[in-house]
Model the fold of this input.
Amino acid sequence: MSSPPDIVLRGGLVHDGWGGVPRAADLLISGDRIVAVGSGLADGRTGADGPTETLAGLAIDVSGLHVAPGFVDMHSHSDTAVIADPLNTAKTRQGITTELIGQDGLGVAPFDPGRDEAWRSTLLGLTGHADLPWTWRSFEDHLAAIEAARPATNVGALLAYGSIRNAVIGMVDRPPSPPELDRMAGLIDEAMGAGAFGMSVGLVYPPALYAATDELIRAFSVVGRHSRLMVIHLRSQGDAWREAVAEAITIAREADVHLHVSHVCSLGRRNWPKIPLILADLEAARASGLSVSFDQHPYTAASTVLAQVLPPWVTEGGPARMRERLADRAARDRIRTEIAGRGRAGWENYAGLAGWHEIQVAGTSGQAGGALGRTIGEIAVERGQDPVDVVAEILLAAPGSVAMVLRRLYDDAGITTIMRAPGGSIGTDGVIAPHPHPRLYGSTARVLGHYARDLGGLTLEAAVERLSGAGSRILGLGERETLAVGSYADLVVFDPAAVTDRATYVDPARHPDGIHHVMVNGTFVVRDGVETGARPGRVLRPDA
Done:
């Protein structure tokens, strides 16, 4: 088979991915690498940073456009999407070339088909693709399945602590025994050896929400011995946000592990003033010697599974036990009381923080009476029902979990403050749902267009750094964090004046404008704004 022709991207303004001012330069790409950066490469003249050679390939004029290192989705839920839908156009069309999956402690491996169907059902509201058979068992098997699917994007994976806890003790609220802790430590060690970039935990999601701090220190100490990441969805991002950050710092310090905080955000208007305090807490931890980073998504709405509006005791034991409780009138009354703030405290009360008229149904089985894309509040008014009864009926009708969008939880000022803070990167946190949060399709364009260009919240160079080099540096992907001789040719060509996110809460599955070309490992996955059908992505592993 003949090798592909060399490619020159001619006349663009090239970003370094470190926040530097872009410079006019041509890029010569041969195979999967950048082999020259300079001027006159299309006609064989000497380049500034590479060899002199006559081009016998393809020259593409990108004059007036900006060329950046490929964008990194630092918080992706494409765990099964990269297998079921390997073209992954929701990501490639917005310039994403690398994704980090296995987030929030809600990963798909290890998986035992004989005993873990309840776990699979729990995750469907996040992962989608209910018809995809889960043929893997171990973490390594899952990576092999991704490699076999040949996705368009590069994929790095975190081990998910929820899947480990489920595999050993199930969805129950109790501490593990010493032998169970040993077994979990063995599974974590095995996954680190197989190529996990670290381990995630979601302390608002069962079963990890049942884990005490000392249990988490023991688990993440294994991750620390491999010098990998601790990626944490905090126990609270609302009323107990600072206490949750303090716990995360304690775990990371005791486990001797890099702390990466997922989707830094402040839930509910009453918690917005805490943002400077949280950023100061993270900076103080960094100044004390702890390695600290974070990601965020660039929207004023959140998204997760609908069951999260329920108090934790409702979901304890798995989907079957949840259904039994939701079918019970006395249990529903207790749920109503606690959501109204008159019962058990100590949990993230999303309905209390957002309000029922801001909770939009993002994915159902199609059996929920036209709920898709509508809010719980408006459905309750239309049916003359209490919102808790609406939620119960939707969850009882769905064969798996249901996704939701929580609107107006944040504001642009808070998002911009976080976006300027040191140590940050961007993740879509895009739930794979029939009516998803628009961030699944529009996140990178929203950073470049809405926050950098329109609001002036940060410079274009800083926005590019946040989207590209920042994530690559956190993951240790030195050959993908910048556009230099020897770097992998992961890149995106965009028009900063035109780049705009078009996805909305009403019509979320819309690709952005202004993204012209996207290359992964030297191959176009998007050319002139259209996906090419190529699938050159690779499974990435630390130190590989």
User: Anything to note?
Assistant: The chain has a mean pLDDT of 94. Residues 304-406 form one domain.
